[in-house]
Amino acid sequence: MLPTFDEERRLEAQGYHLIAGIDEVGRGALAGPVVAAAVILPISRGSSRTAPTWLSSVRDSKQLSPKKRESLFEKIQAGAIAVGVGMVSPEEIDAYGIVKATRQAMCLAVKQLPIPPDFLLIDALTLPQIPLPQRGIIHGDQLSLSIACASIIAKVTRDRYMIELDRIYPGYGLARHKGYGTPQHLLNLRQSGPCPIHRRSFAPVRNLRIAST
Question: Alpha-carbon distance 31 to 90, whole Å?
Fold first, then answer.
């Protein structure tokens, strides 16, 4: 299944022209922030004659290699009408819960857009806090090019941030697994305990802390 501009074109026919695709990464990680991105693409340039060549390579970020994501990240930044990124910390995730934190990251991403959108296409969720017409699409990052581009921006942004955090908190392998619950990460957690960027409310971290008390 390849993402297309079908949904965006239907909205464009209804009079919407600044359609932001929104997606997040890091929702299931044990460490680090949840990061969301909002991307407004030039839909009218998406026809086969005028579409930039890189657009045909866009997929859900999970389906791309790190090298391909990095390449597309630069092309999206250069070719999009607007890009916004929002980040919510592990402390906020623990305080509010991951669903609310995810919505908060998405709202921040929309606020960071230099041009306000007139419609939101969101992967899976909706954002009641934002008074704009919107639609949540299940598997939106596999169906909508705008959402897929947002998934790439969010993924590369978060990966780069986790590599920086690996230098601050060595010994957990954050640069490799980006905070997700791999066997090596869980082993490091058992050996060293959580560091300040671990999500204390998530079961593997919470259970370790209970066992140690």
Answer: 7
